[in-house]
Design brief:
Layout lengths: L6 H10 L9 H12 L5 E5 L6 E7 L7 E6 L18 E3 L2 E3 L7 H17 L5 E6 L9 H8 L8 E4 L10 E2 L1 E10 L14 H21 L15 E3 L3 E3 L9 E10 L5 H22 L4 E10 L9 H10 L6 E2 L5 H6 L3 E4 L14 E3 H19 L1
Parallel strand pairs: 3-6, 3-7, 7-15, 8-14
Antiparallel strand pairs: 1-2, 2-6, 4-5, 5-16, 9-12, 9-13, 10-12, 11-12
Helix pairs in contact: 1-3, 3-9, 5-6, 7-9
The structure holds zinc ion.
Length: 387
């Protein structure tokens, strides 16, 4: 039988693995797997294409449906260029705060979830407590979908998923969807005095960007649905945050690269927005090719995070509300894995300790009070599984 570490001891261990998204997380996964094995709980891994990263899931308790998934991610954002008062990969307690990269986002919750496993077993839960830890959440929620797919048929289907992103222990029931593309406009270079014979990738790319501007205006002016009204702003937005292209002022630009990101309000179809983008791209590309057949536009998907739609009488939301007593409506503007669980047929809610305001910051911290609130909360979740 493994030694049941305190949640705080587990947090120390998890933060000490510098699992920045670009690095391997396998050392952390090894440790978690061994920790769970100490309680007779078998962990399952789902590797990424490189084999350098894996997500991990496990089910503790009886092999029956109707349990609860505690979902977290193992990766953290980089500390490059940030000034920290202490080592970011060592948990330091000071003035009622636990400092360290990932303490808020979201190794704090991961630690609490792992500490809840021996508790669930000792309490003799009647439905399983399940753990789902992903990789590459911070670079576009890439790791969770294959993990969720792999869970089906390997562990019994849970009734609720709690995604422990920092929400100050509020039940967050909705967020926008996000989808982003890297766009490469390939032009044809000629001397700018002869620009009618060339294809200026920047100027043609600008047509697509201007379409994004027009869509924003249209969306802003449109009617707001009650579902969309929960969000700020209550409409779908298109954003171009980076652009590069061209070689000289007197050459028609041969290349222009930029990103186009959508944040889609629940109730609207991400697929439909992607189709509209492709349609516009095809229209611009046809006009470019009429000038030079070598010209064109290619697009590569960068991320795809479905929205979390507030559920009518959702199981997960109901569970969290019954514990926290929080009956307010909360939505957030960032994407999470909750939408990916929901898209695959789970009832999902976001609820975790700590404040998103501290996430990704230098001197990231979670307060001891929030960490303890999270521990009490998961104790009640375990209790609910005993009933
Ligand atoms: Zn996070």
């Amino acid at each position: 039988m493994g030694k049941a570490l305190t949640a705080r001891e587990i947090l120390d261990r998890l933060v000490a693995f510098p699992t920045v998204s670009r690095e391997s997380n396998l050392d952390l996964v090894d440790w978690v797997e061994e920790y769970l094995a100490g309680f007779g709980v078998r962990a399952h891994r789902v590797y990424d294409a490189t084999g350098r990263k894996a997500s991990l899931f496990a089910s503790a308790g009886p092999e029956v449906e109707g349990g609860v998934v505690l979902s977290g991610h193992t990766d953290v954002v980089p500390v490059d260029g940030q000034v920290w008062a202490t080592d970011p990969f060592t948990v330091v307690e000071r003035d009622g705060r636990l400092y360290g990269r990932g303490t808020a986002d979201m190794k704090g919750f991961d630690a609490l979830a792992l500490a809840a496993v021996p508790l669930a077993l000792s309490r003799g839960v009647k439905r399983p407590l399940q753990i789902a830890l992903s990789y590459d959440e911070e670079v576009g929620c890439l790791g969770a979908p294959p993990m969720i797919d792999a869970m089906a048929g390997v562990v019994p289907k849970a009734a609720s998923v709690i995604v422990g992103e920092p929400s100050m222990m509020k039940a967050v029931t909705g967020h926008k969807g996000g989808v982003g593309y890297a766009v490469h406009v390939k032009g044809y270079e000629v001397h700018s005095s002869m620009m009618h014979r060339g294809v200026n990738a920047i100027m043609w790319g600008a047509k697509l960007i201007e379409w994004a501007n027009a869509m924003n205006e249209e969306n802003r002016a449109g009617a707001v649905t009650p579902l969309a009204a929960l969000f700020d702003p209550p409409w779908t937005t298109l954003h171009v945050g980076q652009i590069a292209g061209g070689t000289a002022h007197n050459i028609t630009a041969g290349d222009c690269r930029f990103g186009v990101d959508f944040r889609v309000v629940p109730g609207e179809s991400m697929a439909e927005w992607e189709a509209r983008l492709r349609e516009k791209v095809a229209e611009i590309e046809a006009a470019m090719r009429a000038v030079r057949p070598e010209a064109g536009i290619s697009m590569a998907p960068r991320f795809h995070v479905p929205p979390l739609e507030p559920e009518e009488m959702g199981r997960a939301e109901g569970l969290v509300r019954s514990i926290t007593g929080d009956n307010g409506r909360h939505v957030v503007s960032y994407g999470t894995e909750a939408g990916q669980f929901q898209e695959r047929g789970y009832s999902a809610v976001i609820c975790g300790p700590g404040d998103i305001a501290q996430a990704h910051q230098p001197d990231e911290f979670i307060t001891v009070a929030q960490f303890e609130a999270g521990e009490r909360f998961l104790g009640r979740v375990v209790e609910s599984l005993c009933a």
